[in-house]
Amino acid sequence: MKIAAAQIACVPGELKSNLHKIGQFAERAKVAGVELVVFPEMADTGYVMPIIRASAMPWKEGAVPALQEMAQRLSLAIICGVSEREDAAIYNSQVFVDAKGQIAGRYRKTHLFCAGAVDEKECFSPGDELSTVAWNGFRLGLSICYDLRFPEVYRRMAAEENANVFIVSSAWPFPRLEHLRILTLARAIENQSYLVLANRVGTDDRLTFCGGSAIIDPDGAILAAASSEGEELVIAELSHERLRSVRERMAVFAHRRSNLYRSVRIRIDRG
């Protein structure tokens, strides 16, 4: 089963231009035989907080209906990072549109990035729930960018919701490319799950994004990877048999001691 990650640049505030780019990459994915294509974080508005505040729309308008039409026309499932306005709140969200053009899943970024020149709390409200979606015999765990630094998110989805393919839409900047590489590998290896990363390239305002989009298998092998600069479509096969093989060879989930993590006190020796 083929899945793709689209590494693209966006134009801040230019919805029509960004949707045109998304459509081009979706068509390329369809021609390549892909069944699901993943796009980066905030691919509709770009990643500039004042522009997002001005441009974010409810999902009955803007990017989401266009993505639904695109998915239905191409018979291609799409996951994309998009803005979401609900009453006075704006969310940094992911939408999962199935190959029939229906919204099959949604996720609002739970961990807002606040460091250096960026403070997402100035723009976004945080989501308050995790999200997994059944798809073609797999269970997808949705996540966005900074979530990668919180391993509890992925362990919870894998151990309690049986997620086995993590989807990460991201606008991860330089100079932290090496952090991105290590964190994605760790999340895949420790949870014996596929991980699909679609990261941005280009520059929005003061941020330059580091690319490196990748598809990683449950044993940590990099099946496909993009450069740190150009726009690319990376494609790989997902296999139920590969998942079974990795998990049977080392039964990590059966060896977990959940009671220890939740209820046993931590001993502190003071020397």
List keywords for this structure.
single chain; about 270 residues; Nitrilase/N-carbamoyl-D-aminoacid amidohydrolase; six-stranded mixed sheet; 8 helices; 16 strands
Could you explain the architecture of this structure?
By secondary structure, this protein is an alpha/beta fold. The chain has one domain: Carbon-nitrogen hydrolase (Nitrilase/N-carbamoyl-D-aminoacid amidohydrolase), CATH 3.60.110. 30% of the residues lie in helices and 29% in strands. Helix 1 (15-31) packs parallel to helix 3. The model has no long low-confidence stretch (mean pLDDT 96).
Count of all domains: 1
Individual helix count: 8
Largest sheet, strands/sense/barrel: 6 strands, mixed
CATH architecture: 4-Layer Sandwich
- Specify the structural class: alpha/beta
- Mean pLDDT over all positions: 96
**What proportion of the residues is helical, as a percent range?**
25-40%
- Which band does the percent of strand residues land in? 25-35%
Please, what is the CATH homologous superfamily?
Answer: Carbon-nitrogen hydrolase
The rough form would be described as globular
What is the N-to-C succession of helices and strands?
EHEHHEEEEEEEHEHEEEEEEHHH
Cross-sheet strand order for the largest sheet: 5-4-3-2-1-16
Poorly predicted parts = none
Q: CATH top level?
A: Alpha Beta
How many beta-strand segments?
16
